[in-house]
Amino acid sequence: MSFSPYLSTLYPASLGACANPSLPAGPYMIYAQGAVGTACPGGLTGATAVGITFGAPTGYQNATGGTFLPVQLISSDVVNGSSHTAGLDTNIPYAGGKLPSNDNPSVPLSAASNPLTRTFNANMFLMWQSNQAGSILVPLGYQTWGFNATATCGSNCGTAGSWTVSASQAGPIGSFTASSPSQPSPLGNNVLVDGIPTWNGVAH
Question: Taking residues 20-48, what's their average pLDDT?
């Protein structure tokens, strides 16, 4: 699985409200450039560049006609010192199972949270599902990625243009790790059992 392209920083953007989950309209720090649309997952309509793209798998044969599927686990997500629950990102498979796909996490900005720092880490697993009846998802490997970014505002913090964002790290962390029964667990709170990713619930 390739992780390209990806951005090396995050950006401020004005996004519309989202009813479910409940997210306000206003300025956001988002892992995308030129983002417009809503704060809903998948609600961007005009980003000129997304944060990170999960490419189609390379180097694997699929002679039996199975399906490659992405499964993403959030390993850690800390906003201004407050940790969010780690776990499965949205659904299994991620993004409806489409490859290539992308991710662009965002967080609302306000004067009360100025400055805002977010440290986010995730593990994207490349899984394979045989087309044989009763088969299970098999992990082929994973890639750790994430960012550490800070947004600051001098005045008029209700507009995205008043914020500046800097990132000390954004993009892949290390290289793709092929699965094996004895491999150690990846970065963060995700636990592998015989190389298979596990989780206790959906991240939020």
Answer: 90
